[in-house]
Design a protein that fits this description.
Helix content is 8%, strand content 44%. The protein is mainly beta. The protein has a single domain, classed as Sandwich (Hypothetical Protein Aq_1857, Chain: A), CATH 2.60.300.
Length: 107
């Protein structure tokens, strides 16, 4: 059974910090073909569309389109701050392999 991805409080808090919701923007998480491992994530601020799954928290929204949704079943969308920089990350249990860049994976 497919479960929607989860979004951590840290990710919602970061969206609030940058004022995404105030500008009518949501964090779009999409999966596209390409990258080193066959699929890659596209993460950007975007306006929600009609066919999006909308995940809400802290007054903020994360959206996933219907095509990307099966690839993100049970995934966790998080925000991390490390020495190499702060970024949104996706922990995806469906990925069988990923590459060092953290944006590409295979299933």
């Amino acid at each position: 059974m497919q479960l929607p991805p989860k979004v951590t409080d840290r990710a919602f808090d970061r969206l609030a910090e940058i004022g995404a919701g105030d500008q009518g923007q949501a964090l779009r998480v999409a999966v596209e073909g390409g990258g080193c491992s066959g699929f890659q994530y596209e993460i950007k601020l975007d306006a929600p569309a009609d066919d999006d799954l909308v995940l809400e928290g802290n007054g903020q929204k994360v959206v996933v389109d219907s095509v990307s949704l099966p690839f993100l079943s049970n995934a966790v969308i998080d925000f991390t701050e490390e020495l190499i920089g702060a970024r949104f990350v996706i922990e995806n249990p469906n990925a069988t392999a990923s590459c060092g860049c953290g944006t590409s994976f295979s299933m």
